[in-house]
Amino acid sequence: ARDLLATYSHSIEKLIIADSNNERLDILRQSLTDSPIEIHVIDVTDRQIILSLLVKCDVYINAVPTFVGLQMNIFHACFEAKRNYLEYGGMGIYTVQQKAEHDQWEKAEIIAILGLGADPGLFNILCRVVADRLDRIDKMNLYWTAKFIGDENSILIPPYNLSTVLAEYGNPSQQFLNGKLPQVPAQSGFETIDLPEPFTGIQELHMNVWF
Fold first, then answer.
1. 105 and 146 both lie in a single domain
2. Do 26 and 81 sit in the same domain of this protein?
3. Domain check: are 96 and 151 in the same one?
């Protein structure tokens, strides 16, 4: 919200923020005083409420946790309202379903940007930088890692949103295997890699897929 309301985002006239939690909205409202925002406490399962807010905006940013189970409902509401759609993450399972509707979104001239994730576009740039410096590339493997800073302890400190981390380990995922993209059970598909400094040692990773 702060980035969207910053002076360098001069083309944004108003930010409409909706949440089911009034306390979270109050905290946000207090931190964004004198900003062009409009706050709504809503039931995100109510399609008519979603549609009534969509008609007031140009772009919808979906920050509802993916495995709440409303990903496709919200996606289709944006299509119905003919509003451009952007999401932080949809996981591979939902992304495949969304990409299957590419032609109808293109025909309707509505933009949908899927699965921005923790570093939108950064991996694309890094891959291009590497590609420009090599004569030949057979394959690129991309890994997202995090290192715990400080003394070892028994307290779980997730590298990013805890609900997302748990969802990735507790739900089926899409994995690119032998030229196909099958859905596989949770925590299946492991890869052993020898990480360089500062991520020393042999690591066995559960593989998940983003698009």
1. no
2. yes
3. no
pLDDT by 10-residue block (mean), the chain, 211 residues:
78 89 89 86 94 95 86 95 89 85 97 83 87 90 73 74 77 81 80 73 57 37
Give one DSSP letter per residue of 111-136, joined into a string. Answer: -EE----SSTTHHHHHHHHHHTT-S-
Cβ–Cβ under 8 Å, residues 171 and 155 = no
The structure tokens 């032609």 sit at 103
User: Does the residue 44 lie in any domain?
Assistant: yes
* Cα–Cα dist 90/62, whole Å: 9
State how many domains the chain has. Answer: 2
Buried b (16+ CB within 10 A) or exposed e, 134-163: eeeeeeeeeeeeeeeeeeeeeeeeeeeeee
Give the whole-angstrom CA distance, residue 210 versus residue 202. Answer: 24
Token digits of residue 40: 């709504």
pLDDT at 203: 61
Residue that has been written with the tokens 């690591």 in this structure? 203
